[in-house]
Structure formats: structure tokens, C-alpha cells
Design goal:
By secondary structure, this protein is α/β, with parallel strands linked by helices. It is built from eight helices and eleven strands.
């Protein structure tokens, strides 16, 4: 269903959810509300909502009703195959390398932060990794014992206290542009490394890209030009 703007889309989604059978659902796919090449990034809530809907469409069965403004329907979308490739399921007792998991989060759009409070943020303090998947209502805390996942908890973003124990959690991408080799290669041509700074390895480049305004809207065009 195509609407004029985000406000109309939200209203139609709410009304459709009331009339649809319980076995069906209505999903909201908001526009970024950011013009191309405007030096701004979408609001965290909008970015999280877009990723939640894209993830549900890529992995979920059935054909839900998607409500979107015209602007959102015309914007660049990531390939379904890449979206499915980015999903990582972590369960209690599984083995993950902390450094590799952190690189995975950065590659798929998570932003490093001292305190995780918004969707798309992550932090690591020793063997404790906090991150906020966009499709979940609250952030998640992994406690590692070596490379083994000792516990998984949902926690309150405001108090930072654990609220519920989990057996497993899906690690979903946080942004619509994935920082793979092609994107990072294009980034090297556009990002100036300060004197005395790191050599520009992929991990460092990915962290810099995560903080760039409007990266989710400019990266596809940047990479397209780089391949020509």
C-alpha cells in the first residue's frame, strides 16, 4: 500500500492491523526523510523500522501487507541475498570469537558506543558485549566465558539492568548498506587518513564509515561510481 508520507503510512498500518485476520500482519516501511546527499542520517527509529521490515520480508513466510510512502518505495534497497547473509543466530553455549563478532557488528552497520541505548549501537567491555538489533524491542547482552556464550539477556536501555534471560538471539543488520570489501574499497578512495593515524585497515575503515552522516544514502552511489 502506497501513501503520501510517513504519517499517513503509520495511520493506515494501525487501521489495517485492526481489520486484518490474526494470521496476517501489516508492516510499516517508512521513508528515510533525508534527501539524497543531504549531510544527515535517518533518525534511529526510522532506520530501525526499515531494517525490521526488510528483515521480516526476507526471512519470514507469507505475504504481509506492507505500507510505505511513495518516497520509500522509490528508494534504493539492498538485495535480499545480502540481507539473509548478514543474519547470525547466537544461542547460549555457542562459540564465538569476541573480536570477530565485533567486526561482524561493525561490518553490518552497528555503531560503537560507550553505552548502548539506541537501535544499531554496540559496546564491548571485556567478555561482555551489548548490542541493539533494530528488529528487537530491547538491547541484548552477551556474556562470554572465553569464546563460549555463557549467557544471553535482554536489558533495559535506560537502567542497563538485565530484564530477561534468553536462549538465543538473532543478530540482524543495523543499516541498509553493508560494509563489505567492495564498499570499503570505494571508501578508501574518499576517506583521508589523518597524519599519524592507522594504516586504514578494513576494521578501522568500517568504524569510520559507521559514523559518517548520510552513509546509508550515499554509499550505493559512491560504489557505483567507483566500479565504472
Amino acid at each position: 500500500m502506497i501513501t503520501k508520507g510517513n504519517r499517513e503510512a503509520e495511520r493506515f498500518r494501525d487501521e489495517a492491523g485492526f481489520w486484518l485476520p490474526r494470521s496476517e500482519r501489516a508492516l510499516l516501511f517508512p521513508s528515510r526523510e533525508v534527501l539524497p546527499f543531504e549531510p544527515l542520517s535517518p533518525e534511529p527509529g526510522i532506520a530501525a523500522g526499515r531494517m525490521a521490515t526488510l528483515t521480516a520480508l526476507a526471512a519470514g513466510p507469507g505475504r504481509p501487507l506492507v505500507v510505505a510512502p511513495l518516497e520509500a518505495a522509490l528508494q534504493f534497497l539492498i538485495p535480499r541475498a545480502k540481507l539473509l547473509l548478514a543474519r547470525l543466530d547466537v544461542h547460549r553455549g555457542s562459540t564465538i570469537a569476541g573480536d570477530r563478532f565485533r567486526r561482524h557488528l561493525v561490518q553490518w552497520g552497528y555503531r560503537p558506543s560507550e553505552r548502548v541505548a539506541a537501535p544499531g549501537e554496540f559496546s564491548q567491555r571485556g567478555g561482555i558485549i551489548d548490542f541493539f538489533p533494530p528488529a528487537l524491542p530491547s538491547p541484548v547482552r552477551l556474556e562470554l566465558f572465553g569464546d563460549d556464550v555463557d549467557s544471553i539477556h535482554a536489558f533495559d536501555a535506560e537502567t542497563q539492568r538485565n530484564t530477561a534471560a534468553l536462549e538465543r538471539v538473532p543478530v540482524l543488520p543495523a543499516r541498509e548498506v553493508f560494509l563489505d570489501g567492495g564498499v570499503l574499497g570505494a571508501l578508501k578512495k574518499h576517506l583521508i587518513v589523518p597524519e599519524g593515524g592507522p594504516a586504514g585497515g578494513e576494521s578501522w575503515l568500517a568504524q569510520q564509515a559507521a559514523g559518517l552522516p548520510a552513509w546509508s544514502t550515499t554509499a550505493p552511489r559512491c560504489c557505483t561510481r567507483a566500479r565504472r
